[in-house]
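Q: Got a minute? One more chain.
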Amino acid sequence: MLRITQYIKKSLKGEKVRPFPGVILIWNLTNVCNLFCQHCYSAANTVRTGELSIEEIKAQIPYLKKANVKYLILSGGEPLLREDLFDIAKLFNENGFITTLSTNGLLITEDNIDQIKENFSYVGISIDGDEETHDRFRGMKGAFRRSMEAIRLVRDAGIKVGMRFTITSETYKSIPFIFKLAEEENIPKLYFSHLVYSGRGRNLTQAEKEEYRKIVEDIIDKGFEYVEKGIDIDIVTGNNEADAVILYHKFKERYPEKADILYQNLKTWGGNQAGVRIADIDYRGNVKPDTYFPLKLGNIKEKDFYQIWNSNGILSKLRQHPRPVKGKCENCQFLDICNGNSRSRAYAVYGDYFAEDPECYI
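A: Always. Here it is, folded:
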């Protein structure tokens, strides 16, 4: 994830950023969902067969600690469909993990908001455009209204909340609406996720390269506007680390005397972190370098997470910096910033985990 506003602020102050001191684990607790989203990377449905029990999850806690997992994002499917979600979150919290929730928000109510506040330090809720766009993209009429009600409920309960938006050719025209919505509703964080061709997301497309780059430039320009005007909204992008190159160029135009500070901060950040500081466990216990990877490194029913996370093979190559990527990425002068970008997207298009990223717009 590229924390655009945070990196602008720190670099303007001459501050160095520190890489996250551990592993961020996305745990997809279920594949069941109450929506049918066009971009769903897990192709969520109604099947619960093979879902890990709370006892199997609990057994991994010592190994997560040993592997230096610090931060857990509980996701799905729709994680609130697990009746034992709050018990699972409590286990993680009691063991010192920072625990957050990624949800569509439809099941957040007055009845469970206190439990959400007790168990989660942050809640990310998906909004993929204006009401018409969101409802069409998510496959349910009324989904936008209910998700916005959830955002307000979480915000008013004093829990940090953010909107998650996936950039596709179907949704990108709604980005100005999303910024306006965040400003009007006092939502402190916006996370823009680039499309990765996984699950049902394989059926979607991104905007044409020229338009795609313009979309990113507009998002980053908004980041500068928020920092320069003192508007307290964090802008973060994910799944296309070429965004950092645009951020660097635009920062250099505005603040050339501090551009070297930003560049060093971006190198410290290190670009794509799949298999490095990012891990995923799916609902059946398969460990992957990130949520989008088709490749399974192992299953926690057979080996513990620490053993799997410290195995050789593709993880060794993912952890090289810069990575041994091919094509136009191989000799790119910004490889030390983006780290080759999305390996999942490269595989989806070229069948090679170390091919160039087809959605690099640089």
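A: Residues 297 and 314 are 9 Å apart (CA to CA).
Q: Perfect, thanks.
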